[in-house]
Amino acid sequence: MKRFRFPLRPVAVLRAHRESRAREAFAAAVHSYVQSEELLAATRARVAQLEAALCAGRRERFDAAEEAYHLHGYRREAAAELEAERAMIAARDVMKQRRTEYLEAHRKLEVVRRLEVKARGVYRVATNREEQAEFDDFATRRACRREPVFSQ
């Protein structure tokens, strides 16, 4: 019996490689997105601290120079928060795109894998038939060689 050979094996190898690269790109995009979320959370925490400090400073005496300094810092942190939010949205969009690319590469690989499973099934059935035919042929030859038990 001949050995099984899948003619689309090179395609399967290429698609597996592409799927692996797409998975790595997706993982990197997820990592980037998580980092941008953490940066945004840290920036929002700093903005909340500055807001609390501004409110607490207004309860005591008013110093215009100090208030202007704190307000400038608050505006800078608010701008950083806005920029971090934009970066997080961009990272989320990239992550979604990489996820779509990974899913497409995975689907293409699964198509080839299913074809290989079907081809192996067809090969197995053909091999089993061939083997059974050999057994039948062997049994027939053996039965023809026997001497009759009862002679007349």
Describe the structure.
With 152 residues, the chain is mainly alpha-helical. It is built from two helices and no strands. The protein has a single domain (9-145), classed as Helix Hairpins. α1 (9-59) packs antiparallel against α2 (64-145). The longest helix is centred in the last third of the chain and has 82 residues, at 64-145. The chain is rod-shaped.
Estimate the helix proportion, in percent.
Answer: over 70%
User: What are the segments in which pLDDT stays under 50 over at least 5 consecutive residues?
Assistant: none
CATH topology: Helix Hairpins
The CATH first-level class comes to: Mainly Alpha
Total domain modules: 1
Please report which band the strand proportion falls in: under 5%, 5-15%, 15-25%, 25-35%, 35-45% or over 45%: under 5%
Radius of gyration, in angstroms, nearest whole number = 36 Å
Q: Please, how many helices?
A: 2
CATH architecture designation: Orthogonal Bundle
How would a textbook summarize the main sheet?
none
**Total number of beta strands:** 0
- Terminus-to-terminus distance: 44 Å
- What class, by secondary structure content? mainly alpha
The overall average pLDDT, rounded, is 90
Q: What sort of overall outline do the alpha carbons produce when their principal axes are compared?
A: rod-shaped
Order of helices and strands: HH
Features:
rod-shaped; 0% strand; 152 residues; Helix Hairpins
Summarize the structure.
The protein is an all-alpha fold and 152 residues long. It has helices at residues 9-59, 64-145. It has two helices and no strands.
